## 1
Amino acid sequence: MTRRKLAAGNWKMNGLNADLTELEGLPSVSRAEVLICPPATLIERMARKTSSVSVGGQDCHPARSGAHTGDVSARMLADAGATHVILGHSERRQDHGETDALVRSKIKAAWNADLRAILCIGETEGQYKAGETLEVLRGQLAGSLPDGTSPDNLIVAYEPVWAIGTGLVPTMAEIRDVHAFLRAELTARFGADTGDGIRLLYGGSVKPGNAAEIFAVPDVDGALVGGASLKADDFGEIIKALEAAAAA
Ligand SMILES: O=C[C@H](O)COP(=O)(O)O
């Protein structure tokens, strides 16, 4: 099973109109796929500005429309030009109390709008230190993933919460073991073809200096990059490392 490598940038609550110039500094690649998820305010302008980079949202409401002040529906994201949406990011879980059940309903809403969902899962520092990582991930996968999951509609991003924005990264052996575990869990629930086809991203302090090493880990199909995706120089280096891994 060939899984196309994916370099996904999550701009989080960063980015103004002027920052769209960063797109111009990104390398063009042929093997790897590049996605940027800017704030919702920039999705339409970013999508109009580029055809080589896919554009995604960072969250959506589970409902199709309605009285939900301040929220954005999956259909609105698609209407603005998004093809993907990040769901269940740990910052949403922490800042907004999002549960696995809510994330599951958001994934279904994304699919109904023909968006590909990027499900984020990951253990906290306390859970990591207590040796609970795999148990936590198993629960998040089971609780968040609807039936009907397929390689066409889902990408899973493993993001240890303690590695996000901290400069800390698990050992390559830890990343390998977690990704192998996730692959096995997906295969056990959805069957070999589906489980083997779903792309797994690593996220958490991915930088130009560690990208190649991370991309060499089996079952790592790319990265979900936060801080280093904001500047074309850094994200460009990560994209090039992924392109090289795809060619290897
Ligand atoms: O969605 C991206 C992750 O939260 C990683 O963020 P980071 O690369 O700034 O650590």
## 2
Amino acid sequence: MNQDQLKEQVGREAVKFVEDGMYLGLGTGSTVRYMVDALGERVANEHLNLVCVATSERTAQQAAELGITVRNLDDVDHLDLTIDGADEIDDNFQGIKGGGAAHLWEKIVAINSTKNMWIVDESKMVHKLGQFPLPLEVIPFGSTHVLKKLTDMGLHPTFRMTETGHVMTDSENYVIDLHLNEIDHPHELAAQLDGIVGVVEHGLFLDMVNTVIVGRSDGPEVLRARD
Ligand SMILES: O=C(CO)[C@H](O)[C@H](O)COP(=O)(O)O
């Protein structure tokens, strides 16, 4: 099975956990895209009553086009479950997210969700975080000074760019990626990054996920991370 097939496999597996009446958070990314397609099929075929909150404009649009009810986070009082992708998950179920520049909204939705599930192909499972560049969402105003500070801290930052300029998030902020190779102490790094004025949010998602579904050639593996 290739990577796309594994992503589709976990996307389809994840929607089996969705129950009628749920308030559901929808993540962002290519794996989530398959999940939302599968969710749309269930909504259409089984007439499920769901209320969904999306973590990006992209996901909101896809879901709405499939006839899934999408509301703003501020218009719901709770979320039962959020299903999202991830860029890396380590042996302790700590994660890096933000490859799709959506980690700010993803983290806000995640912390307001009773349960969180991540769906990944097996290439995302690592022993130690850090091979994947760690994304930060930063306020454009003064961001070159934030970049310099991060450089001085030895964190090897680069702005995430397109051919035409800065990658912009849905909140119209920039993204800086930290090229770290290895993150020995994720909690300490998270605390350091939380203290930098101008950094809105980082892509370390620590102690957050309850269930991980890993796509493997011999079938999806469901891992329980925490209650
Ligand atoms: O954090 C994310 C977006 O900000 C995504 O969940 C993450 O990048 C995984 O994406 P994909 O499923 O396309 O590999």
